[in-house]
Structure formats: C-alpha cells, structure tokens
Design a protein that fits this description.
mainly alpha; Growth Hormone, Chain: A
Length: 387
C-alpha cells in the first residue's frame, strides 16, 4: 500500500505539467513549445536514471532506496516551486524526473522478491492503481491550479506528499520483508560496475525478448496516445479540454483491469491476456482513427486503456522474473526501455503526422501493437512448453 502511495506521487509528478503549459508560457513570456521542455527534460531524466537505481536497489535494499528517492523527490519539487526563471524550473524538473525514477521499478522489483509468482501479477496490478490515479490527478491538479491559483501550488502538494511517504517508508524499511540478495557489483569504477549488472541481464535471451517487446509496445501505444487529443480536436471539432477529458477514459480502462485483475488473470492466463490485450488495442486504435461520430470514441478510449493494461501488466510480471538474481537491475532496464520507447514513438509519430494524418497514424500504431503482442504471446507459449 505504501509503495502504491509513492507511485501515486511519481505519476502525479510525471503529468502535472501537461495542463500548465499555457500558464507557464504566459508567466515566463516564452513560446508554448519552449514551455513543453518542462515535460521533456523530466522524461529524459526519468528514462535514463532508472538504469542507476536498479543496481543500487539490489545492493542496498529496494525499499530503503525508494524511501531516500521519495525524500529527494520532495526536495526537487520544492526546487521547482521556488524557481524564479524558466531555466531553474527546467533544472528542477530534470531533478524531479531523475529522483522519481527510483520509485516504480524498485517497487515492482520488491514485489517480485516477496510475492510468489502465482500471485504476483494480481499484486502488481493493484500496485499500479496508485500510479494510474497519480497520472490522472497530475493533469487535474495542474490544470485547476494553473487556471485558478498558481502553477507553483502543485509542486508544494507534491513535496509534502513525497516527504510524508518517504518518512514512512524510511521508518518501516527495516521491518518490511526484503528478500533481496545483496549483489556484489564487482571491481572497477561505479559506472563500470553498473554497466556490468545490465550486461549480465542482457546475456539472458528471454530478458532481451521482454525488453524488445516493452520498447516496441511503448513506442506504439504512446506514439499514438500522445496525438489522440489532437485527432479528436481536428477531426471532430472537440475543444482541447474535452479531448483531454476523453483521453482520461484510457486511465479508467486501466483501473477496470486493476480492480478485477485476479478475475481477468484466472479467466485468460498470461498468453491469452497478451493476445486479447493486443487485439483490443488494435481494434480500439483503428476505431479511433475512423469512427464517424465523436461519442463513439468514448468506449474506444476506455477499451484502449483496458487492452493496454492487460498486455503491459503481463509484460511486467515477466520482467520481475527474467533475472531473479538481479531483479532490481532487470526491472529498471524494463522500465527504461518502456519509457525510452515512448519517447521514440512520440518523436516518430510527430515526424509522420503532417504527411500521413492522424487516422493513418492510429491505424499503423494499432497494427504494430498487435504484431508485438502476437509475437510475444507465441514466445511466452513456447517458454511455457519448455519449462
């Protein structure tokens, strides 16, 4: 529960700037495109820093590192709230992304350490409820504060949130079960030792397949999702606020899976969850691209989120088991590949959208995620047969 609360703060930090870009542009007298760098620097720092925290969690204890990371997130949020110019805000956001990277991958790895594989997928799904709520709350709180108060207010809230959960985790870390083996990181400099940990993960053939799948999944899903509001605005004439509200149905689909995860898992099992999730996402994305009436996109957005969490949660359970001796490094590599895949997908989609248009872009993304899902489901089935 406490780790899910920490994940809420991480999700809120990640999305809090989305609805504040216009206010930032006005307050700092900069173009809105420049204001969006407050999102970009967070994402880049978040993606790469996960590679650092995985081995640290293996070495010093995952919950302990999450506790320290939460405290550092609090300081980074205070730094953002006090920023007097945009350059300092960017530095604060980069620090926020770098420190928030310590939370979700290590929490997932800790769950992998202490929860049996048979129950782990349902527990991971429940853990993700915190992150899903955090992502939604970040957009809502950011937009409300930017319109009625100040863009600084959400950072004060985030700072208090992380300070409290960091203190709680720190005081309870010694009493929590932590079955992590202390990994000796070998000889050489710190960077050499860290790289050595990831090399050992990448030597495992199954780990490479999981990492490739989640990277392509992130590229397809978020390369499409980033442009769904623009598609709803340009094709159906919806306001940007209404388009953003519709896209929040994606998160509700994720919650529908998380709250009923045990039932979904018992009905489908891992392989069919991947296949069904990929098929639902493909159908939803193609429907979003070509439906004639805007209100028909509401169930499509919801089903898109449901299908994504069906597939992604199954990839997560495999990530926790692909290198048990170095679970922190393995899950950190998984999270980093997922987040960097998202960045690459958004960049590629942005370069294609002018010439291809959003309907074709969503269609291509749907077909890609379907191919990724079918391929990984086949590989997982083969692994079941040989285990």
């Amino acid at each position: 529960m406490a780790l899910s609360v920490a994940a809420f703060g991480s999700g809120m930090s990640m999305r809090v700037m989305d609805a504040m870009l216009v206010r930032l542009a006005s307050d700092f007298a900069i173009p809105i495109g420049m204001a969006s760098w407050s999102i970009t620097v967070f994402g880049v720092a978040y993606g790469f820093s996960q590679l650092l925290f995985g081995p640290l969690g293996d070495r010093y204890g995952k919950v302990k590192v999450v506790a320290f990371g939460s405290g550092a997130c609090s300081l980074a949020a205070i730094f953002c709230a006090c920023a007097q110019d945009f350059s300092w805000l960017l530095i604060g956001r980069a620090l926020g992304g770098a420190t928030a990277a310590s939370i979700i991958p290590l929490a997932m790895a800790w769950i992998g350490d202490v929860v049996a594989y048979e129950q782990r997928q349902a527990v991971l799904a429940k853990f993700l409820i915190g992150q899903i709520f955090g992502l939604s709350a970040g957009v809502l709180v950011g937009g409300f504060s930017a319109e009625f108060f100040s863009w600084r207010l959400p950072f004060i809230v985030i700072a208090i949130w992380f300070a409290l959960i960091g203190l709680y985790l720190g005081s309870h870390s010694k009493r929590l079960p932590d079955h992590t083996h202390v990994v000796q990181l070998g000889e050489g400099s710190g960077i050499t030792r860290l790289l050595g940990e990831f090399q050992k993960v990448l030597r495992i053939s199954w780990a490479r397949q999981v990492l490739l799948a989640v990277c392509l999944e992130g590229a397809a899903v978020f390369g499409a999702l980033a442009f769904v509001p623009a598609h709803l605005h340009t094709v159906y004439g919806l306001s940007l606020s209404s388009s953003g509200a519709l896209v929040m149905l994606f998160g509700l689909g994720g919650l529908a899976f998380a709250f009923q995860s045990r039932r979904w898992i018992s009905i489908f099992g891992e392989v069919k969850l991947i296949q069904t999730g990929a098929l639902i996402m493909c159908a939803s994305l193609i429907s979003l691209g070509w439906l004639p009436l805007w209100w028909l996109t509401m169930p499509a957005c919801f089903l898109f989120g449901l299908g994504f969490y069906m597939m992604h949660n199954t990839l997560q359970i495999n990530a926790t088991q692909m290198a048990p001796e170095r679970r922190g490094a393995a899950v950190a590599a998984f999270a980093s590949c997922f987040f960097l895949g998202q960045s690459a997908g958004v960049a590629l989609s942005g370069s294609l959208i002018t010439s291809a248009g959003t309907p074709l872009l969503l269609t291509w993304a749907g077909l890609l995620v379907l191919m990724v899902g079918i391929r990984f489901a086949n590989l997982r089935q083969q692994k079941f047969l040989h285990s």
